[in-house]
């Protein structure tokens, strides 16, 4: 967390106010001394509040309520986000268009010392450089990850009560926060992606943690997308993007079992051609990562590492993007548990190279 604070202080465009919410850390008030020491070294206002763990929505609401009438923009980051020194400045550029309501930044992997985190260093950023970049062309990004996202205060003010009291399957929703904030923004205007606004975040390092995280994300995909489909209009591209995502998941439910299970069993041969096709498709989807530079000017991924990791991450994505999607569909009525934040499961070793600002 100290690296997060340091990266904020080094921004080329400093924030007016930094509002830190510590919710349910163990031990209680674990960050108090660190925050109080840091606030004496920065030129902007720093507010700090400890609250019981009641979910991310409630934690954010303390800052939202206090400043919804006193600021133009809210930028959200997580406690493990380390910002590139130009992250805030670059995130402000799209707001020159008064119709832009939210801006998603690019999140890159910071921990790459474990096999799983190495694979995620390809697949996770690809969801930005491919998926969000494409949706942004239509001003229709459906999810701005909370690790680096900026919203107009008018979006927050108009929807804060619903955000805190959203009922899904008769229960108050505890997650799906990033998706809902972006959906609210989409109801009011354009939602875009700014690739030059870069942050670094920690990836899960064990399969259990990753599974719980992605199940939570997929659950909110199923019920969160339906909110936008009901509330928005087919006159807007984001409506069609969400519907197309639902249709593709239904088609995958038929195609994948036939290609990967039924046909191989029937023919008695492993589907190598299909596997190579999927890897090739994965390379095409992820290839823009080769053009991403870190703050120190070095490539985010050398070509040889990219080719190795994208091959194996393609196999991992069959589990993450297909099997977990279907499982989450049948479990999406469970909307109250967070699932991944009961204890710290990832950390950055002191010997690792951190982003250079």
Automatic annotation (TrEMBL):
<dbReference type="Pfam" id="PF13641">
    <property type="entry name" value="Glyco_tranf_2_3"/>
</dbReference>
<dbReference type="GO" id="GO:0050501">
    <property type="term" value="F:hyaluronan synthase activity"/>
</dbReference>
<protein>
    <submittedName>
        <fullName>Glycosyltransferase</fullName>
    </submittedName>
</protein>
<dbReference type="GO" id="GO:0085029">
    <property type="term" value="P:extracellular matrix assembly"/>
</dbReference>
<feature type="transmembrane region" description="Helical">
    <location>
        <begin position="269"/>
        <end position="287"/>
    </location>
</feature>
<dbReference type="GO" id="GO:0005886">
    <property type="term" value="C:plasma membrane"/>
</dbReference>
<keyword id="KW-0812">Transmembrane</keyword>
<keyword id="KW-0328">Glycosyltransferase</keyword>
<keyword id="KW-0472">Membrane</keyword>
<keyword id="KW-0808">Transferase</keyword>
<feature type="transmembrane region" description="Helical">
    <location>
        <begin position="307"/>
        <end position="329"/>
    </location>
</feature>
<dbReference type="GO" id="GO:0030213">
    <property type="term" value="P:hyaluronan biosynthetic process"/>
</dbReference>
<keyword id="KW-1003">Cell membrane</keyword>
<feature type="transmembrane region" description="Helical">
    <location>
        <begin position="236"/>
        <end position="263"/>
    </location>
</feature>
<dbReference type="InterPro" id="IPR029044">
    <property type="entry name" value="Nucleotide-diphossugar_trans"/>
</dbReference>
<keyword id="KW-1133">Transmembrane helix</keyword>
